[in-house]
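User: quick one, fold this
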Amino acid sequence: MAETIGAGPDGPGDETGASGQPNEVWPRRWLRAFDMARIFGIGFLVLFVVLRTWDPFPVQILRLKVFDFYQFLHPRPLTAQPVAIVDIDEKSLAEVGQWPWPRDLVARLVTQLAAYGAVVIGFDIVFAEGDRLSPPRLAETLPGIDEALRTRLRQLRGTDSILADALSSTPVVLGQSGHHDAASGADRPLDKVPIATLGGDPRPYLFSFAGVVRNIAELEAATPGRGMFNLVSERDGLVRRVPALVMVKGQMQPTLSLEMLRLATGQSAYAVKTDEAGVRGIVLAGVEIPTDNHARIWVNYAPRDPSKYVSAADILADRLPGERLAGKLVLIGTSAVGLLDLKATPLHTAIPGVEVHANILETILTKAYLLRPNYALGAEVVMLVLVGVLMIVVVPRLGALVALIYGALVTAALAATSWYFFVAEGLLIDVSYALLAGGAIYLSLVFINYLREEQQRRQVRSAFSQYLSPTLVDQLAGDPERLVLGGETRTMSFLFCDIRGFTAISERYKSDPQGLTRLINSFLTPLTEAILATDGTIDKYLGDAIMAFWNAPIDDSQHSSRACRAALDMLVRLAELNNTLAEQAAEKGEVVAPLQIGIGVNSGPCVVGNMGSSLRFDYTVLGDAVNLASRLEGQSKTYGMTIVIGGETARYVADDFALLELDLIRVKGKQEPERIFALLGDKDLGRSQAFLDLQSHNATFLERYRTQQWAAALEAIAKCRAAAPDLRLAVTYDLHAKRCAAYMADPPPPDWDG
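Assistant:
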């Protein structure tokens, strides 16, 4: 139904407030509340929910690393448990010999363990082939023996039979290993293990192996139990969960630890509980062993306990106290490095695989289960949404500090809750992803607000940069408190530049003022670039003139050198501009005179800062050194020099540039004389022999001139002219020659100071 605008107070149009002004209707208020930052926040939240539901490897590994950290901080405590490991260790290999051992020796190991009182023996080893050291086999494989010995060996009993006898009289579980090759173990059918199912079919959720590496048939027939000992690592190589049941050739098979418990409890069957999410647990002897939905047991590791290990060599040599293994579940495995059965776990960089099975048994026997319930995903997604919504709704309403404290409190509360459930209940509930998502949403909100403020700042900079130097604008944007009247005293360098003969140029453009404006802009632009390229600050433009300074607002210890470099660069850029103007004039059939400038540079103390009125002020400089720089620019025409610098500047840069002393002058408004110099070029020119000769002749001239040796001074001028015919010094030396001639005719007064 269409809305009618202005239908009255009860109609669907805008509401009217007490002031008579229309209030915003709810959609508009809602849109204002959900500004761009919140919209981005919602987008991020949806993205994180999708990622968590998809659960790619980086999300999985983050979750698993958090659980690893929990185990590292709170491992399962060491307690006296009926689990022991008979270790085929380096000591055993040294005393008995290399592995594999003869089967009669393994039989003696089994018999001795039974005598020590072992309840069940589990082999984390597979006897996949007949014993190569069995006497009947040696009779067929040993070369060079006589027929009598060969016959005698055939008559001896095989070691595999000896081991089978030992296994048949002892509760033993033989280990076997799943294999990717379907042909492996296909020579005989697997034993069907009685496994009942409670709920749905568990087989689609179980790890599956196409084939199996089995023990030889004679040994399997003699033993009451067989279990898979595969330790399935996570994608990062750590063993955290171990399957309790697996599929092998289409049949469910128990694992080594589970089968040992079945024999120890005298049971003949298992039961598997499943629900809509997958496997829930394995029931054995009326006790449910919880698993994840793939029938994997989370191993609750304890710190390493060397007392759990017994060397196989000590068993064979009967060096063990009689009660050491009585009533225990005994695992036979290896820690020898050369046998390559080392695994990485959340607590250990490398432990023997047999110790992982021992930790599984102890986890079950102590009921110290780590539980990742099937509802964990739903709970974590709900937590993620709640954290995200809180961030989106609350953070934009808070100040930066309060928002930071709020985020820290939310983080602490969630982390503490997750930690409590881990310690008290063994529950593995992941809060890291929710915290990561909340942090990302928080940062996105902050970043978008920052972008908004940065845009506003750029607008302010753009407006103010028309009046102030870019460097100063940046400083004022970062420190607005500097926008006050006042200044500071600094030693700085100053540059004044002016076009010579500007009146005549203006007269040529009297009928084209826009053309004059374009000319001035084309002149000021490259010269300004030369100043900014050396970190100078443009103080102001005075028609065709430029005033600039260095060492403010940014500290610059090389301010004198930078000012001189800028002056030389201005000459290079002016020459390029004159070439461009000449080419443009030639295209029109015109002839233009090149632009010429005069530059004055001086250094000295001044006051720099915001000066003016409380209504309007400029960032500028005041001081005698500034005035002198302006006067030096005016003197550049007098001496026919393009760049004239003061004595203080020359003192700083004498070693870096080609400087030639011009005169000792007393400028208007000053009583103290000022030594002035011409800046003719860079260091390379200053080190050339021709320039050094010119400096020497020039110094001789000035010394004779100031001691009133007029004839000798004129001779020195002639040598100066000869030494530098191409340095445009004619005006300077013409001026000095006229003075010498005048003083010869009319000597200066006795108090003349040069």
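User: anything notable?
Assistant: The longest helix spans residues 432-464.
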